[in-house]
Design brief:
The two termini are 18 Å apart. The protein has a two-stranded antiparallel ribbon with strand order 1-2. By secondary structure, it is mostly helical. Helices cover 72% and strands 3% of the residues. It is built from 11 helices and 2 strands. α7 (134-181) packs antiparallel against α10 (240-251) and α8 (193-217) packs parallel to α10.
Length: 313
């Protein structure tokens, strides 16, 4: 079976598996990678960019190398190749868990239980929940749903289409390392520099595809494009900016502004300033938009892989 069809069947099965099963409660492969990366950090850590770059190379290279060996081992069997692709896709995407956590916060807010919403918010993002009121929590959830649609679904599918199982695994490894060491804490400002920059590069195509698809699938395509063009470049993240701006315009809401993150207060630019403030009901709208974007991304990536294969001499 051709590699493009292996990806098409496997990625579709893997995304369906995520929809039906979500993430496992125990023994998640990404969690296992995180523990391994943490062990490597304990051995290598120095307050130096070079040692951080070595950490990134060891962890990402090791994960991608193991995936490449597994892909090579199953290549003679089309069924095994599809099964491996499906398992890898299911392991690295997290759309169902993203929606589940967002809705859990939304239900707490709808019930008027802001304390419960604050307790649940860290499952979704790294904001300081004690610094947020109900409206701030709702805005944080919508922003997290937007950004993680790219990080947890679309970006992985893009790299899976480009490089198969190694691409899927390498993207998730890069994204996980960025979450672990890529932030600007005193310990990781230099050590995590390489992971953060690599995540910016790896996330670039998925973020742009997510922004395009949010405009296509949202309620206000023109508003999404307008917000993306006007505001994305003002965001401090080169990838979160287009995604959050496009989601903001598609949903007709205002995102961005002051937030507390990892002990720091950041004053981020407002995205789609002409939109209204985020309400609790917008959490469900954002989750539904995320699901539509994810399904469209699967179709685009599968079609792109099939077409690129067919165009080769």
């Amino acid at each position: 079976m051709r590699a493009d069809r292996v990806f098409a069947y496997g990625a579709t099965a893997g995304l369906l598996g995520d929809l039906l099963l979500g993430d496992p409660r125990r023994g998640h492969p990404v969690a296992a990678f995180g523990r391994a990366a943490g062990a490597v950090e304990r051995v290598l850590w120095r307050d130096h960019r070079g040692w951080g770059a070595l950490h990134t190379a060891v962890c990402v290279g090791g994960a991608a190398g193991l995936a490449a060996l597994a892909s090579r081992a199953v290549r003679p069997s089309p069924a095994a190749a599809v099964a491996l692709t499906a398992a890898a896709t299911w392991a690295v995407v997290g759309g169902t868990s993203l929606g589940r956590e967002a809705r859990a916060v939304g239900r707490a807010l709808e019930a008027g239980d802001v304390d419960a919403a604050r307790e649940r918010l860290p499952h979704l993002c790294g904001r300081d929940p004690q610094a947020l009121d109900a409206d701030g929590i709702a805005r944080a959830v919508v922003e997290s749903v937007a950004e993680n649609t790219s990080d947890a679904v679309v970006g992985a599918l893009v790299w899976g289409a480009v490089a198969g199982v190694p691409g899927l695994v390498a993207f998730r490894a890069v994204n996980t390392l960025d979450a672990m060491v890529g932030h600007k804490s005193a310990r990781h400002r230099r050590y995590g520099w390489a992971s953060a920059r690599l995540d910016d590069v790896a996330g670039w195509p998925g973020a742009r595809l997510t922004a395009v698809l949010a405009a296509v699938a949202g309620d206000d395509p023109r508003g999404a494009v307008r917000a993306w063009r006007a505001d994305a470049g003002r965001h401090p993240s080169p990838n979160a900016g287009p995604v959050e701006a496009s989601f903001a315009g598609a949903l007709g809401v205002r995102l961005g502004g002051t937030l507390s993150y990892g002990g720091r207060v950041e004053h981020r630019p407002v995205l789609n300033g002409s939109g209204r403030a985020v309400g609790v009901h917008d959490i469900e709208r954002a989750v539904r938009l995320s699901r539509r974007v994810s399904r469209l991304a699967l179709g685009v990536c599968v079609a792109g892989r099939l077409l690129s294969k067919g165009a080769r001499p």
